[in-house]
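User: quick one, sequence for these C-alpha cells?
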C-alpha cells in the first residue's frame, strides 16, 4: 500500500481482533491522528484506549498481528549530510523482518514520510541490532520512527517511540 491515513479522531489504523493476524501495514503516510498511528489493541484494551503495546522478550505473546514487537531506536544522527539510524529488534528467533523508517516533523508515534527500509533476520536469541542510512539526509530536529514487518507471518508492529535526529 501507499496510502495517506491522517486526521482521524482516534487511531490511524487499529487491529483489534485477537485472531486478526497477517495484517501488513506498510509504505503508508500516517500522521496527525488523535490516537496512535498503528494500534494493536491487546487484551484489556478497548479500541479507544490508545496505549502502546509493550514489547516482550522473544515476542511470544498472542493478539492482533501477534502483538508483533516494534523496533527500539537508540540513535538518529545527521552529520555532513548523512543520516544514520541505529536500533534493535527483539522478536521471534531466526525470522526475517523488514524495518521501515519514517521521518516526522514533531514528537509523534506515527510515520509521515517513509525514508527507507532494511531487511534483517533475528538471531537464535531473537535479537538483531541494525543501522540504516536513508538515501536522503533527514534534518536535525526531525523525529524518526520505525515499524517491524514479519515477512514470515505478514504481521506489522506499532510504530516505535520517536527518536529526535541529533547533529552529533
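Assistant:
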Amino acid at each position: 500500500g501507499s496510502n495517506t491515513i491522517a486526521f482521524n479522531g482516534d487511531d490511524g489504523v487499529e487491529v483489534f481482533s485477537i485472531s486478526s493476524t497477517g495484517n501488513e501495514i506498510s509504505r503508508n503516510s500516517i500522521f496527525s491522528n488523535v490516537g496512535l498511528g498503528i494500534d494493536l489493541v491487546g487484551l484489556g484494551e478497548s479500541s479507544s484506549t490508545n496505549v502502546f503495546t509493550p514489547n516482550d522478550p522473544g515476542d511470544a505473546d498472542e493478539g492482533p498481528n501477534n502483538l508483533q514487537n516494534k523496533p527500539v531506536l537508540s540513535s538518529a544522527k545527521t552529520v555532513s549530510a548523512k543520516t544514520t539510524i541505529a536500533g534493535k529488534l527483539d522478536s521471534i528467533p531466526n525470522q526475517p523482518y523488514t524495518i521501515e523508517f519514517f521521518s516526522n516533523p514533531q514528537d509523534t508515534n506515527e510515520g509521515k514520510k517513509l525514508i527507507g527500509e532494511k531487511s534483517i533476520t533475528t538471531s537464535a536469541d531473537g535479537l538483531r541490532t541494525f543501522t540504516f542510512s536513508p538515501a536522503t539526509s533527514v534534518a536535525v530536529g526531525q523525529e524518526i520512527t520505525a515499524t517491524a514487518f514479519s515477512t514470515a507471518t505478514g504481521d506489522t508492529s506499532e510504530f516505535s517511540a520517536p527518536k529526535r535526529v541529533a547533529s552529533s
